[in-house]
Amino acid sequence: MDIRALLSGDVAALTEAIIGCESVSGNEKALADAVESALQDLGGLSLHRDGDTIIARTETGAGQRIILAGHLDTVPLPSTPGSRGTVPPSWEQIDGEQVLYGRGATDMKGGVAVQLKLADDVAAHLAAGGSLDRDITWVFYDHEEVEASKSGLGRVMRSVPELLDGDFAVLLEPTHGVVEGGCNGTCRFEVTIPGVAAHSGRAWMGENAIHGTAGLLQVLSDYTPQTITVEGLDYREGLNAVRIRGGVAGNVIPDSTVVEINYRFAPDKTEEQAHAHVREVLAEAGISADQQKVTDSSAAARPGLDHPAAQAFIDAVGGEPMPKYGWTDVARFSAQGVPAVNFGPGDPLLAHSDDEHVTAQALRDCHTALHRWLLGG
Ligand SMILES: N[C@@H](CCC[C@H](NC(=O)CCC(=O)O)C(=O)O)C(=O)O
């Protein structure tokens, strides 16, 4: 795929092309190659590639550095036939608005397109003899939508941390055009329910491990998630079964079922406190310690919107800040001491949905706001 010619045009057309390059987590290479060659062509940026993560930096010697970061991967394509949030993307005209449907339209290929368009703007500005108040680092990374251990951003933070030094970071995750502060944390538990295998024609000889999940599923279904206010933003939590596997054949009583549980926790909690809370709920369902294990965990991030850099950003882009309910790499940057916020095109409520879409106007508005913040005018 070649996106070089699109960088100087409409950010909506650029987003369409980027969505057209399917990049479900683990399959980012073609898109990473396209991003790398587009950035190479711009000139004036120092480039670094690590796997399918690409980092581009201006090196003008300005005293401060801004980071614009976004992931290249998406969740899997929708499995429901007829879903519009898929690949290839498609345009629809709705109430006079141009609407782009496709996997990643909100999370977050629109944000990636805005990042690339800003790189083109900045390269042109420098080539014309302009200067920057703050140097800029662009990060395009792989494996965000999967377990934390696979993250391309995490890998580079461990191997070449100096490439990600900065005074302030913006994650171009979908935020509907306002700043979303911090993020909820996320952790996953696997709970194993044992049973005894038997012929399903003689079920009394066994113990059904799928039926054995009923008590746990009832506790999760009855669970009332909390909303917790942190620094003035209301974070909605959630505790849900997200996957279940069990059974080996249509004529065998299952001897084991594994229920995967995902807890989304507010930034008032550490990961340890979050894990302890899940354990309490599991104990209520009669699950013992040896039936459960933590399989993935990522810390939450407090909003930190009173930081001068965050405050200046909010003043520049406008709008009333909201909380980020999903997990984003604001948490990774905050943990490294880099204040960070989410700000990007598209409605986060549509992220991961079967009809993921974004309006052309939202893409253009986000680009305009960030262009003004970075280059003025
Ligand atoms: N390692 C984590 C990564 C999960 C990342 C994902 N993030 C988003 O969807 C951000 C978009 C938004 O909420 O606006 C998530 O929260 O699932 C994991 O695997 O859980």
TrEMBL record:
InterPro entries: Bact_exopeptidase_dim_dom (IPR036264), Peptidase_M20 (IPR002933), Peptidase_M20_dimer (IPR011650), Peptidase_M20A (IPR050072), Succinyl-DAP_deSuclase_DapE (IPR010174)
Record-listed E.C. numbers: 3.5.1.18
Alphabetized UniProt keyword annotations: Hydrolase, Metal-binding
Entries under Gene3D superfamilies matching the protein: 3.30.70.360, Zn peptidases
UniProt GO MF annotations: acetylornithine deacetylase activity; metal ion binding; succinyl-diaminopimelate desuccinylase activity
Domain Peptidase M20 dimerisation: 185-286
Keyword 4Fe-4S: no
GO biological process, one term: lysine biosynthetic process via diaminopimelate
Keyword rRNA processing: no
First-tier enzyme category under EC: hydrolase
Alphabetical list of Pfam families matching this protein: M20_dimer (PF07687), Peptidase_M20 (PF01546)
Name this protein carries in UniProt: Succinyl-diaminopimelate desuccinylase
